[in-house]
Write a structure and sequence with these properties.
137 residues, alpha+beta, 1 helix, 21% helix, 43% strand
Amino acid sequence: MKARTILTFMAIVLIMLQAPMTFAQTANKSLDGWTLLGTRTVDYTLDRDVVSISNNQHFSELKFMVKNGTLKMHKCTVHFADGDTKDISFPDEVNKTNDGRILDLKGSNKTIEKVIFWYDTKNESNNKSIVELWGRK
């Protein structure tokens, strides 16, 4: 009986030790090559938020990720340092089960100054959604 208890304990310890490594590998794989540009906690209403980019880097793709809820993204406008803008419409909802839509900046080799996004969300889970903006070179 004692040997079985020890074996069970050892199996549980091994599973617990392996779980964080598996999670870390998954997290790194899904964000490999992406840089976090900003995070916003959004309200339960039709609204807009701005993510200012201060690192003077060029990105070829942007991606919004949402945690703690679902967000109906209407559009976003990318403002470049040279004054140009790019409007991108969003037909999809973004939530924690999808990575959002990857926004291809189509060879815009320009410095991004800020990204403005318009959205609405409902209070279905009593948790405000957290929106992360990621960029990839």
